[in-house]
Amino acid sequence: MILLATLLYGGCQDVKVGYLFTHNAKYNPDSVVFKANLDDANDDDAHRKKFEIPWQSQSLEGVQGTNPIRYSIERIDSDHNSPEILNQFSSVQKGVIQLPWNHSVPQGKYAISLRISNEGYSVVLDSMIMVIIK
Hints:
By secondary structure, the chain is α+β, with helices and mostly antiparallel strands. It has helices at residues 2-11, 43-51, 83-86, and strands at residues 20-21, 31-34, 55-56, 64-65, 70-77, 90-92, 96-99, 108-118, 121-133. It has a single domain, classed as BT4661 domain 1 (Immunoglobulin-like, Sandwich), CATH 2.60.40.2710.
């Protein structure tokens, strides 16, 4: 009986807590356009500048898991690989990609790969969203 109890107790030590499903993860739409330069004559641009509103993508859909779920940028593929440029991008709750209103990122296309993780699980999703700077 003691042997059985010991085996049962020992077998329970390797059980992972929670879950993380990312097979349905996607952005809708899967690309977003941010401006490189704001135009003060444009009301929307003037409002963004006045209130320092960052550029933001839609949230990442289709992720299920045990909270808290953390989102971070794993990699950015582009023609501009300077850390000073790429460090301006950030990922906030629900996988929203954010760029400051006064960024200095040059025009171009930036394919962003995300790391999604929670307790016991971590998944990298390659090229989930294309950020286009115009």
